[in-house]
TrEMBL record:
<dbReference type="InterPro" id="IPR036291">
    <property type="entry name" value="NAD(P)-bd_dom_sf"/>
</dbReference>
<feature type="domain" description="NmrA-like">
    <location>
        <begin position="183"/>
        <end position="266"/>
    </location>
</feature>
<dbReference type="InterPro" id="IPR008030">
    <property type="entry name" value="NmrA-like"/>
</dbReference>
<dbReference type="InterPro" id="IPR051604">
    <property type="entry name" value="Ergot_Alk_Oxidoreductase"/>
</dbReference>
<dbReference type="Pfam" id="PF05368">
    <property type="entry name" value="NmrA"/>
</dbReference>
<dbReference type="Pfam" id="PF13460">
    <property type="entry name" value="NAD_binding_10"/>
</dbReference>
<feature type="domain" description="NAD(P)-binding">
    <location>
        <begin position="11"/>
        <end position="158"/>
    </location>
</feature>
<protein>
    <recommendedName>
        <fullName>NAD(P)-binding domain-containing protein</fullName>
    </recommendedName>
</protein>
<dbReference type="InterPro" id="IPR016040">
    <property type="entry name" value="NAD(P)-bd_dom"/>
</dbReference>
Length: 301
């Protein structure tokens, strides 16, 4: 089979990667190469594809030799780096992936950064990390096109904390004011926007930066939605910032910096509005929090 383009994807087996790859697989003109630590996971997620449609290169962030050996012949690179501790951040790895890719002839990189990258210089460790990633790629001499997605708070984050407290106590527990907004975005929207960009003509998006807030909701609305979808009453328990920090460090085992930053961002990002024009980029309205919870309600049961 002859394809018009081959797209290389790093970090495409998670929340964003799944909808992204599934959408790209429906395009008969493109072939994909996935960079993954566990090839068997790729097979399990995306099944058997016709010859050449989906190839897997086994590799991680620190040893990029498998990437270097296989990136030639690709026109575009999707780059998502997972950083549980934020401050460690793989800053050099991000730039190295990008430098190698441009040098091998890649014409467009689509990076998953974050909404905090739009905040003031060194405002917090997440902002600092995103800024370092973006400036690392942006400053590569003679680089080609560089598109950045800056999504806000993933709806899939509910699986980490909210789902447990809903399951066990019928509660959402947070330090956020009950009537202030949390800037939610569905990972399906992020994957779909990345897929759109990776299939559009490269010059259409150039060096675009796209913020992504899909459906901002208050904690009051959040528990109303959960109660409606789950068919039982879910309530909101507002705790102090100190209590929230305690829960994250003592019960969830988070480090000081990560827990502190979550408390800080909960208040700092309250009342962000939905991103103007997101429906233009998606070709439809962004997914609502209610639609996401309906689709994923098993995590709360
Ligand atoms: N959660 C939020 O609210 C939020 C907000 C803004 C931005 N972000 C950004 O969004 C990204 C997370 O996206 P996601 O939810 O789709 O992540 P995810 O579901 O955790 O998936 C992470 C992906 O990265 C791969 N990966 C992890 N560690 C790796 C390593 N050492 N070497 C190679 N691959 C590795 C995983 O591959 P395997 O299959 O090998 O595990 C998987 O494909 C991060 O960059 C984060 O900073 C998140």
């Amino acid at each position: 089979m002859v394809y018009e383009e081959r797209i290389f994807l790093v970090g495409a087996t998670g929340n964003i990667g799944k909808p992204l790859v599934q959408k790209l697989l429906t395009n008969p003109k493109v072939a994909l190469t996935l960079y993954a630590r566990t090839p068997a996971k790729v097979q399990e997620l995306y099944g058997d594809q016709s010859e050449g449609k989906l190839e897997v290169v086994q590799g991680g962030y620190d040893n990029q030799k498998p990437f270097k050996d296989s990136i030639a012949g690709h026109t575009r690179l999707f780059l998502l780096i997972q950083t549980p501790g934020f401050q460690e951040g793989h800053i050099h790895n991000v730039r190295n992936f990008a430098e190698t890719a441009y040098a091998a002839g890649v014409q467009q990189i689509v990076l998953i950064s974050g909404f905090c990258s739009s905040m003031p210089w060194r405002n917090n460790i997440v902002a600092n990390l995103g800024y370092s990633w973006e400036s690392g790629i942006d400053s590569i001499p003679n680089r080609k096109n560089f598109v950045t997605l800056r999504p806000a708070f993933f709806m899939s984050n509910q699986a980490l904390g909210d789902a447990l407290s809903v399951k066990n106590y019928n509660k959402i527990i947070d330090s956020q004011e009950i009537d202030s907004f949390k800037p939610w975005i569905s990972p399906d929207d992020i994957g779909e926007l990345a897929a759109n960009i990776l299939q559009d003509p490269i010059e259409k998006h150039g060096d675009a930066v796209y913020e992504m807030v899909g459906d901002p909701r208050t904690p009051k609305e959040h528990v109303e939605i959960l109660s409606r979808v789950l068919g039982r009453e879910i309530v909101y328990e507002k705790v102090s910032e100190e209590q929230s920090y305690e829960i994250m460090t003592k019960q969830a085992g988070m480090s000081h910096l990560v827990a502190y930053t979550f408390v800080f961002l909960t208040a700092q990002l309250a009342n962000e509005r939905a991103t103007p024009g997101l429906s233009i980029l998606l070709g439809r309205q962004p997914e609502t929090l209610e639609q996401w919870i309906e689709k994923n309600k098993s995590i709360f049961l």
